[in-house]
Design goal:
By secondary structure, the chain is mainly α. The chain has helices at residues 4-39, 45-72, 87-114, 127-134, 137-164, 169-182, 187-207, 210-238, 241-248, 252-285, 301-309, 312-338. Helix 1 (4-39) runs parallel beside helix 12 (312-338).
Length: 339
């Protein structure tokens, strides 16, 4: 194990590389978005959504991943031995992921509300929610359920963990989770993404097989981008002021219109809640089994966290991500006080 100074320098170097990657991705998205809206006016919500997903694909998948891969190509990396996870362990992992999503979503929703509702916004005021609601289902599935899990796992697990594991497995897990969560740029997604990032990094370190985490990621994103969006949009389509007024007036037709999609939505959210509860229980039952075998002389958990968040490279990355948070919330806050 390298001494602390070399370890800190190595982690910082990776942090700087990911900072360059983050700047590139954001610059591409902002630059292309600005150019599109300068030359293509009067776009519909569906067209805006399509172009936004296209920008994500171009910036993250087409340019971002090859760029971050090349930045790390000449660096020494750890070879993680491949082992099988087993079918039932993998299924248990799906429920544990649901638990992390549930807990993280609640924390994120509370903080997201604190930065939106007092300033005239709504709890679901995030760019990703708008994109999901206005998007073509096929484009949404391609981008969110297929491409995002593949390339995000390659970027924030395969490349990152392979190059950080030599400084300590806990270092790799902490960095992978925090960087993945912060890069989402909003409170609504930050916490559950971080929790999943910790878990995915752990699974990858234990198995050496990135296909396992890609599979988990696809299951989660497919659930949200297909089923949750289906039931949510069906419910919101009938949850209108006109229908609610008719319902209040005792209209039987309004009941027939509103009740079925509302019950389906409630049933689906209840099912997700039960999955999350089962995942939380499974997590605590197996908590003692979540161990990483570090080399002799490795950092403690506290030292690992400090090593990740107190070096210049990682600080720069987190500052860039903080800028994404400001981009998400500051305009709404400023507009509230200007009015």
């Amino acid at each position: 194990m390298e001494d602390n100074k070399l370890r800190k320098k190595g982690i910082s170097g990776i942090g700087f590389r990911y900072s360059i990657f983050a700047i590139l991705v954001v610059a591409i998205q902002m630059g292309l978005s600005t150019a599109i809206h300068l030359f293509a006016t009067n776009l519909t919500d569906r067209q805006n959504s399509f172009l936004s997903f296209l920008l994500i694909i171009i910036s993250m998948d087409v340019i971002g991943f090859p760029f971050v891969f090349l930045l790390h190509k000449k660096l020494e990396k750890v070879h993680i031995e491949k082992t099988k996870l087993g079918f039932w362990k993998y299924v248990s992992g799906i429920f544990i992921c649901a638990g992390f999503c549930g807990v993280g979503s609640i924390i994120g929703a509370v903080l997201n509300a604190l930065f939106t509702v007092p300033f005239g916004g709504q709890m679901n005021d995030t760019t990703i929610v708008t994109l999901m609601m206005d998007s073509n289902p096929l484009i949404r599935i391609l981008t969110v359920a297929i491409l995002a899990p593949i390339f995000e796992e390659l970027i924030f697990r395969k490349v990152l963990v392979d190059h950080l594991a030599k400084y300590g497995k806990v270092v790799a897990i902490v960095a992978s989770g925090l960087m993945f969560g912060m890069f989402h740029g909003n409170f609504a997604q930050c916490f559950f993404a971080s929790f999943l990032g910790f878990f995915f990094a752990y699974v990858y370190l234990k198995t050496g097989n990135i296909l396992y985490t890609i599979g988990y990621h696809m299951i989660i994103n497919f659930t949200t981008s297909v089923f949750t969006m289906f039931f949510t949009t069906r419910f919101l389509a009938v949850y209108t002021e006109e229908n609610m007024n008719a319902l209040s007036a005792g209209s039987v037709d309004a009941v027939a219109i509103i009740l079925p999609p509302m019950l389906m939505y409630i049933a689906w959210m209840g099912f997700l809640g039960l999955c999350a509860l089962a995942g939380i229980v499974l997590f605590f039952i197996n908590l003692k089994k979540f161990k990483v075998n570090e080399e002799e002389g490795a950092l403690t958990k506290g030292q690992s966290i400090k090593a990740v968040i107190t070096n210049p490279g990682m600080i720069v990355f987190f500052v860039i991500c903080a800028g994404l948070f400001l981009q998400s919330y500051l305009p709404g806050i400023v507009n509230f006080f200007i009015k």
